[in-house]
Amino acid sequence: MREQLAIWLGRGAGMLSRWLGRGGGTTLPGVMARRIAPNLLQYLSAQLPRGVLLVAGTNGKTTTTRMLADVLTHAGWRVVHNRSGANLVSGVSAVMLAHADWRGRMHHDVALLECDEAALPYIIHETQPRIVVLHNLFRDQLDRYGEVDTIAQHWLTALAELPDSTIVCIQGDDPSLARLAQSLMCRVVVYGNDDLSSARNSVAHLADAGFCRCGHALTYTTRFFAHIGHYTCPQCGFTRPTPDYAITQIHTDGLAGSSITINQTAHCVVPLPGSYNAINALAAYTVADVLGIATAVAPAIAQMQPAFGRYEVVQTPHHALVMALIKNPVGASETIRMFVEAWEQPANLLIVINDRDADGTDVSWLWDADFEHLVPHVHQVFVSGTRAADMRVRMQYAGTPTTHIHYHESLVQALDAGLAQTPAGHTLSVLPTYTAMLDLREILVERGWSKPFWQD
Ligand SMILES: [Zn+2]
Fold first, then answer.
1. Which end of the chain is more exposed for a tag (fewer CB within 10 A), N or C?
2. Mean pLDDT of the residues in the chain
């Protein structure tokens, strides 16, 4: 009875909020319904014949989840997916609720849920997942979460409650996850990158989990970025696990993406730029193969469009805007690398940094991101957002001439200045934080250059 009432109320609230034009991403129905039936998520999850799949990680979880959603759909499965990015317990509940009928019945095969790092333990507890993907764990939004080890410990505690039939897929190149997997009783499947050509060994300042639990520094034979690589501990012998699924070859092709070979036999074209998207595809392949639908991976991923806001091209009347979300030092450094690889000549760049709750209120991460790498490749830099002043100082320290940095408090003015300084037919590249991207998106929608995101 409580579930029934919760479903009516929650679905009603969802319809009302859509009718009021608040978009599909609101969590209000989930919050309301959970007040009445706290076990709602459990109730809905238990009805799915192919179970619940969870994906967590600091970087790449949205793209990985979208890849996997396309693969599952291609295989003919009916998928519940929190595509709008609502990845807290209330948001996940709202998405499940929106897919139930008025009698509270689910007619889908599987739920695929991207999970916030801090919310994952609760979502694990309530959904009793069939598969959990732990993609990576970076220092991110310290003000919200605290240390990486604390998160890993919470994940471990939640995973320990699950039955032996649960499968945990981890990226073995991340030592914090490999360490966590050693303590699990359930089946662990490891994926990792064996193609050493995508390695860089010069990013020591990004290391945030470079120490073994025994206290000794890890030794890396290969480092892809930050603490991700091939490692071993000279003191206690802890070492990177041999992957069950490995990228054995990767060919990257700038913004066009890459093509990868997995376990020397499976080939996949990944139409999203950056070697990290190749790893996202590997994670999707791993889950698909565990589920017995690996043949759906290559055709599904080859047709992919980038996740909303992560990397997006918007046409304006005279320019192309290429936008890529930045939110933490590792992701930002990878995005900068991707931009620089794609630019054929010095480019104009708009950087919009906000420090609202959804961005993380601590912007000290700007100092850990590799903005220095941009300097030889940028022409004019436009900065805006609530922390535009910090960003201006950051670019000055990185070495951009002061005369090439343009500060605009108003985002509209910054955008217009950037476009005005960019020759027609050329690209203005944009690096926004999350809420900055939403603000920017609003301007683009108002001008008719882009549609509201809930229409995607
Ligand atoms: Zn050790």
1. N
2. 87
State in Å: Cα 154 to ligand 1 middle: 21
In this structure, the answer to whether residues 234 and 319 fall within a common structural domain is no
Distance in Å, CA 210 to ligand 1 centroid: 11
> CB of 55 within 8 A of CB of 28?
no
Residue 333, pLDDT above cutoff 90: no
Among 302, 320, 355, identify where a domain stops: 302
Least confident of 78-87, 152-161, 332-341: 332-341
Domain that holds residue 154: 2-302
Instruction: Please report, for the domain that includes residue 407, its CATH number.
Output: 3.90.190.20
Ligand 1 centroid distance, CA of 235 (Å)? 5
Q: How many domains does the chain have?
A: 2
User: Which residues, by Cβ under 5 Å, contact ligand 1, an ion?
Assistant: 212, 214, 216, 233, 235-236, 238
pLDDT category at 431 given cuts 50, 70, 90 is: very high
**Residues with Cβ within 8 Å of residue 285, at least 6 apart in sequence:** 191, 245, 262, 266, 268, 294, 297
- Tell me how far the alpha carbon of residue 221 lies from the centroid of ligand 1, in angstroms: 16
pLDDT at 24: 47
Report how far ligand 1's centroid is from the alpha carbon of 179 (Å).
10
Average pLDDT rounded to a whole number, residues 168-195? 95
- Given 246, 280, 302, the domain boundary residue is 302
Say yes or no: 203 and 242 in one domain: yes
Query: In this structure, is residue 172 part of a structural domain?
Result: yes
